[in-house]
Amino acid sequence: MSAAATDTAPAAATMSPRQYRLIKALDIGGLIATIVTVIGAICWAFPLYWGVITTLKPEEDVVKPGFQPWPEHFTLDSYTHVIFGTRIGQWYVNSLTTSIAITVIVVIISALAGYAISQLKFPGRRILWWIILASFMIPVPALIVNHFVLMSQFHLINTWLGVILPQLVYGPVTVIIYKQFFDSVPKEFREAAKIDGANEYQLFFRLYLPMNWGITTALAIITFIGAWNQFLWPFLVATEEPMFNVTVGITQVTDAFGVKYSRDLGSAMLAGLPVAIVYLIFQRRVTQAIMLTAGIKG
Amino acid sequence: MGNVQLSHVSKRYGNVQVITDLSLDVEDGSFTALLGPSGCGKSTLLRMIAGLEEITAGQCFIDGAEVTDTAPAKRGVAMVFQSYALYPHLTVRQNIAFSLSIAGAKKEQQNARVAEVSRMLQLDQLLDRRPAQLSGGQRQRVAIGRALVRDPQVFLFDEPLSNLDAMLRVQMRLELAKLHQDLRTTMVYVTHDQVEAMTLADKIVVLDKGRISQQGTPLELYNRPTNKFVAAFIGSPAMNFLKAHVAGKQGNDVSLTLPGNRTATIASRGGNLSESEIEIGVRPEHLRLGQPGNGAAFDGEVRIVEQLGNSTLIYVDTAAGQLIVEGEGNLEVEPDEKVGVMLDTQKAHLFGSDAQVI
Question: Which of A200, B26, B44, B69 has the highest local Cβ count within 10 Å?
Fold first, then answer.
C-alpha cells in the first residue's frame, strides 16, 4: 500500500493542478454515452441533411457518380420550379383549410363528448363509452369505400367538406383522453361551482376546459399534424388537381415530371415544412400528446 | 333568517344505510358542529343540506322553506370544502367573484363586493395571485371569501381546518370564531376534531353510525354525556371506563364494589338500574394520585408519565385496568412507583350494558 502510494505520488507531483482537475472531472462513462448518442443523431439526421442538400443541387449533379456531401454548385431551381410550376400554393391552401377545420371540429366535439361521458348522467352512457372504445378495433381503411360512396351520394367529391367529414371520426382517442382528464378533475370543483350557480355549459367552458387547456393544445397540435399528413382519403376524394392537398399534390409532381430527385425532394420539403415548424415550436406539447395516445393504445 | 330543519331524513346508497331517520333543528345565527368519527355520516348530512346529495327520505327546510328537491345554488347556502376547491386557473379575485360572474353581475358590482370581502379577510394584497401561490391559511381565507361573497343564509363548512398544521389550525379557529361573531350567520360545521367543536360551536351534534347520539352545548356534552359513545368521544384524554358490581341502591345513590374490592357510592341520574354489573366512567382530571391504601379507590403502579407542561398524564395499572390520571403540570411521579388512585364520585357517571347513562 505504501509502495502504491509512493508510485502515484511522483505521477501526481509531475501533473499540474489544472491537468489533475481535468482528468478527475472527466466522466468516461458519460463521454462514451455522449459519443454513441451523437453518432445515433448523425445517422438519424443524415437522410434529412442529404435531402436538403440534394434540393440545393442542380439535377445533373444529383445523378453524378460519387459521394458529394456538399454541393459544388448551389441552386434553388427545384424550389422555384415547384413553387411556380405547380399548384403548390393552392394545395397549401387546401391542406391548411382542411387541417384547421378538422382540428377545430375534432377538438370541440371530442371535448364535449368527453365531458358528457365523464360528468353527465344519462341513459346509455356506459354503452356509448364502450362503443367509443370498441371503435378502436375498426381499421380506417375498412371504412374508406363506405366513406367514398357516402361522399359521392352527397355530391361532396372534390370538395373541402368531402375531405373533412370522414376524417372527423378517424380517432376516438381524443374523446378518450378528454374523458380521462375530465374524470381526474376533483369533484369538489364541480360541487363548488354548482353551489355558485353554474349550469353544465358554464361548468364546461369556465371550469373543465380551462383547467385542461394544456391537453387541449397538445391534442390540437397532434390532430393538426395528423390531418396535414393524411394521404389516403384526400387522394381518393380529391380527383381534380386544384382540390389536392399537399401530400397528394407532391405525388403528382413526381408523375408529371418523372423521377427528378432534386425537384421531388424539393416538393417533399415544402410539403413537410409547415408541420416541421409547428413541431419545433410546440414540441413539448406534441411529445405530451404522443405519450397520452401511446398510453391509451398501449 | 337562516334556520335549518331536517325532518326524518334518511340516506341510502344501494343497500347501505348511511343516515337513518334523523331529525335536527339548527337555530338561526347559531354555530352548530356536526361531530363524529369517520364514516358516521356527518359529511353526508352536510351535503344533504347543501343539496349535493339526494335525500332518500325525509325533508329539509331552510328558513322555513322546503328545499328537499331544490338545486344547491337556490338554497341560499355557501360551502367551504375540506380541500377548499379553489379554481386553479383563476386568480383570487376571480375565485371570489365567480358566483357573481355566473349570476351575470356587472363588473363594478363584482369589484365592489370582492373589495369588501377581501378587506374583511385581509386578502387585499393577494387578489392577483393564483391559488398555487398561496399558503394553506390564505387559501382557506379565499375559500371563505368565495362563500361570503354570496351573502348566504347558511354557511356550511366541511372539515375546513383538517389540511392545516397545528399552529395554523389554532389561528384559523380564532378567525372563524371572530367571523361568526361579526356576521351572526348560521354556520354548520363538520369536524372529527372535538377540540374544534368544543371551542367553536354553540351546539354540538354528535353522530354515530348515521344517528344523533346526543346534541347540546359543549359543556352539556362534556359534563353530562347521555351515553358511553359521547362520553368516550368528547374529552381528551378520553374518559376512563371500569366495570363495577352493584352492591346496593338508596334513592339515586348506588353503592358499588370496585375491582380490587374497594367500595364507592356514586349518584345515578335516576335511570332504571336493574343490572348487577355496570360501568363507571370518570374523566382523567377527576382522578387524583395519592398514597396506596384504604383511602384510595384503587392501588396501582405507574406505567408511563407524560409531561405536557400545563398538565401531567399518568398511566396507572390497577385492578380495574389501566387508568389515565391527569395531574398538575409540576407533578413529580416516576414509572414503577406504587400509588393510590382517588376517585371524585361527584363527577363519575354510571353506564348500563346498553351503553346508556343510568
Answer: B26
> Cβ contact (<8 Å) for B52 and A193?
no
Any CB–CB contact under 8 A between B103 and chain A? yes
Domain borders along chain A are 16-79, 81-297
Instruction: Note the pLDDT tens digit of each residue in B140-198.
Output: 999 999 999 988 999 999 999 888 888 888 888 898 999 999 989 999 999 999 889 99
CB A122 within 8 Å of CB A56? no
The whole-angstrom distance between B85's CA and the closest CA on chain A is 5
Identify the closest residue of chain B to A197 by CA–CA distance. B73
Asked if the A81-297 domain carries CATH number 1.10.3720.10, the reply is yes
Query: In this predicted model, what pLDDT tens digit does every residue of A268-289 receive, in sequence order?
Result: 888 888 888 888 888 777 777 6
**H/E element, A286:** helix A261-297
The span from the CA of A205 to the CA of A208, in Å, is 7
Each residue's pLDDT tens digit, A145-197: 999 999 999 999 999 999 999 999 876 889 999 999 999 999 999 999 999 99
Ordered structural domains, chain B, with CATH: 4-233 (3.40.50.300), 240-351 (2.40.50.140)
pTM of the model: 0.79
Buried b or exposed e, range A89-104, using 16+ CB within 10 angstroms = ebbbebbeebbebbbe
- Contact call for A213 and B89, based on CB within 8 A: yes
With an 8 Å Cβ cutoff, are A196 and B99 in contact? yes
Closest-CA residue in chain A for B78?
A: A195
